[in-house]
Amino acid sequence: DRSAPCWVDLALPLPEEIKQVGEALSIEIPSRAEMEEIEVSSRLYQEDGAFFMTANLVTSPDTDNVESSAITFILTETCLVTVRYLEPRPFETFAARLQKPGGNCTNSLDVLIGLLEAIIDRMADILEIHSAEIERISRTIFADAKRGTKPINLNDVIKEIGREGNHISIIRESLTSLGRMSIFLNQAVSANPKAVEIRDVLKVVGRDVASLADHASFITNKVNFLLDATLGMISIQQNSIIKIFSVAAVVFLPPTLIASIYGMNFHFIPELSWGGGYPLALGMMVVSAVLPYLFFKRKGW
Hints:
Structural class: alpha+beta
């Protein structure tokens, strides 16, 4: 039937809608709980002549609060069914592209491949945005301190690094699930008369996913490096503070000793009856404080 749709997009479907579409296509559409299972056998399988593929896709804004959600793709000979409970932007953009003149779909497999390409393009854009954010954080951490500039709050930097690390982790998870899905789809279309052409396209899709996954791994390593560097800088600041207290304690230790000696309640201390005893004690205190300071300064401590 040429009028039959080749893509049925079930966005936030009700149980009645799932049942209706499943009966019309003679397939059993998985529930939301089944879609969120992590076993590969529950996400990639063939049943009643249809191929069921579930992948975690990024479904939130570019920068803040990046999240992913399980989306199921069901490929039959005549129709592609997608089941999703959030609104990923690639679905909207690809649907708008199909509605333009000359964008009508020819078969379900072409729709699936085109949708995957739109998803990968979108994830590449998101990954570029977060890569630029990591570069900004890196410049902030290692920026040269200038007079009048506001000191960097390293605690806030750690929070930013942790947030970006979580975002990259979610993106990597999505890329991994997409990579598995492309491999399964490549094996599934082997019986298609246009298998060679389709496999060539899927190879390109697989290479794109692999390259994005490699870039995400690189960014993850950089996030770990920035986190270690920030913790190291915090440790250096703490050591500097402890160093100041240590030097101050050593500088004031000899004067304290001298003051303690002359503060003892003995009747026979020769300097008590000497007119120059008080100035002598003060001078000894000053000299005993200055000498350790000069020694530390000369050593560069």
